[in-house]
Amino acid sequence: MQTSDRISRLGFGVFDRNDRLKDAYRRSSKGSNGFSLVDLSLGSSDIAPPPAAIAAIEESLGLFDSSTYCLHAATRPFRETVSEWCKWRFGIDVDASREVLFLVGSQEGTAHLPLAILNPGDRGLILDPSYPSHRGGMVLANASIQSLQLSFENNWHPNFGLLSSSHLDQLRMMTLGFPHNPTATVGHQSFIDEVMDLGVRHDFVVAHDNPYVDLALEGESPVLLRSKGWRERGIEFFSFSKAWCMGGFRMAFAIGAEPLISALKKIKSVVDFNQSLALQQGAIAALTKAPDWPIHVRNVYMERRDRTIRALTSIGWNVPIPSMSLYLWMPIPNWAKERGFDDEHLAAELLDKTGIALTPGSGFGAGGANWLRLALVLPSEELELAVARLKPWWNEQS
Fold first, then answer.
1. Distance between CA atoms of 222 and 209, rounded to whole angstroms?
2. Residues 66 and 163 grouped into a single domain
3. Which string of DSSP letters, residue by residue, matches 251-305?
4. Terminal Cα distance for the chain, rounded
5. Which range marks the domain in which residue 388 is found?
6. For residue 129, is the peptide bond before it cis, meaning its omega torsion is within 30 degrees of 0?
7. In this predicted structure, what is the pLDDT of residue 215?
8. Cα distance between residue 273 and residue 330, in whole Å
9. 149-184 pLDDT, tens per residue?
10. d(Cα 134, Cα 364) in Å, to the nearest integer?
11. d(C-alpha 271, C-alpha 260), whole Å
12. Are 355 and 33 in contact (CB under 8 A)?
């Protein structure tokens, strides 16, 4: 049966490929060595959400309107809470009616925005590596996708000086995100200020994907809302999935220039309704009753980062210390390169021989080739046990 060309261009995303490999591993009597699966391939936290958020959801579930469709107007209490949180968190006033939009996860927002902004063939720029929805949304919009390469040698920092003035004049949209997934680099406010200034001067939209804003372990997370010009051509995406550990509830929001919020709202109006009002009550409680929950989460991840890196170092795997929590961004070892392993092959071998699932870096773009992403989504003791399980296989290979 015929399918669209865009489906072919999308291919199978790295999380889908990993999901099929993990499912096959589970069904094969726990792999060739009998190990149970240790899934460190997704940033899906094992930390519970704030109790106040769960209590608010439970209290609201039995109400009739929690099981009915929720259109945009009904999200007003949520949007007003976001406006108040934004003033508290960043010292910035935003209009709940015109500049805030409820989302079913920030991935939904970043993937749908190009449909609202770009015509077929328009140029969109992403970082390489970057989160898959940044590219995927532009593929769905039939955009001409350009990429700005990041590198370990430059600390995974973008160099906008590589973009000529004529190139910038042809852009219609740029999507980026710091703290950066997958490299776990916090970045600097100057990155965002510079690209927002370029967007205003060269007439392109700047979309900043910021679900990790509260999870910087070093320095201050950059925020587009602090950059001059965001009310002209900027939009920023925030999520409850990471800092409030509510990924499965699929709730997020965008704050941005009124024309961008309006355009994205139109796309959403024909694609989906909103999450249950009961879930929105949980999000409201997270922002109002547990605004400091991210501090607790950040401290947990910091301990996990430090202990896991020490364990990996002890077996000879030298891993850079990330400045953002939740992930380790790990170069494949020299012995693997000498044997001709790339990141996809090494990840598959790790899964088959040890039962440990990581994410191949090339799934985030060519710039992630020969790197692996490890999500710190288990207690420290279990992460150390995973490294101990890895050690005999490592020693055999190296």
1. 11
2. yes
3. -EEEEE-HHHHHHHHHHHHHH-----HHHHHHHHHHHHH-TTHHHHHHHHHHHHH
4. 47
5. 12-41+293-397
6. yes
7. 95
8. 39
9. 999 999 999 999 999 999 999 999 999 999 999 999
10. 10
11. 17
12. yes
Q: Is residue 163 domain-shared with residue 61, that is, in the same domain?
A: yes
Last residue of a domain, which of 253, 274, 289? 289
Tokens matching residue 134: 């940044």
* 205, 255: one domain: yes
CB 301 within 8 A of CB 217: yes
Residue position matching structure tokens 């995927």 = 136
Contacts of 205 (CB under 8 A, 6+ apart): 117, 172, 173, 174, 199, 233, 234, 235, 260
CA-to-CA dists, residue 263 to 74, 100, 105, 392, angstroms = 19, 12, 17, 54
Phi, psi dihedrals of residue 188, rounded to the nearest 5°: -135, 150
Task: Give pLDDT < 50 ranges for the chain.
Answer: none
Is 351 within the bounds of a domain?
A: yes
Which residue carries 């499965």 as its tokens?
A: 248
CATH number, domain of 57, equals 3.40.640.10
pLDDT score recorded for residue 25: 85
Q: Which amino acid is at 241?
A: S
Domain boundary among the residues 274, 289, 304 is at 289
Question: What's the confidence (pLDDT) of residue 91?
Answer: 97
Would you state the pLDDT for residue 6? 77
Residues 33 and 166 in one domain: no
Other Cβ atoms less than 10 A from the Cβ of 274: the count is 20
Strand 371-375, strand 359-360: pairing: antiparallel
CB 155 within 8 A of CB 175: no
Domain match, 157 and 75 both? yes
Q: pLDDT per residue over 108-123, tens digit each?
A: 999 999 999 999 999 9
Q: Measured in whole angstroms, how far is the alpha carbon of residue 260 from the centre of its chain?
A: 21
To which residue do tokens 């997958």 refer?
A: 182
Considering the entire predicted model, what is its pTM?
0.95
* Amino acid sitting at position 370: N
- For residue 374, list its beta bridge partners: 328
**CATH code where residue 364 lies:** 3.90.1150.10
At residue 8, the pLDDT reads 74
**Spatial separation of the C-alpha atoms in residues 94 and 84, rounded to whole Å:** 8
- The total domain count for the chain is 2
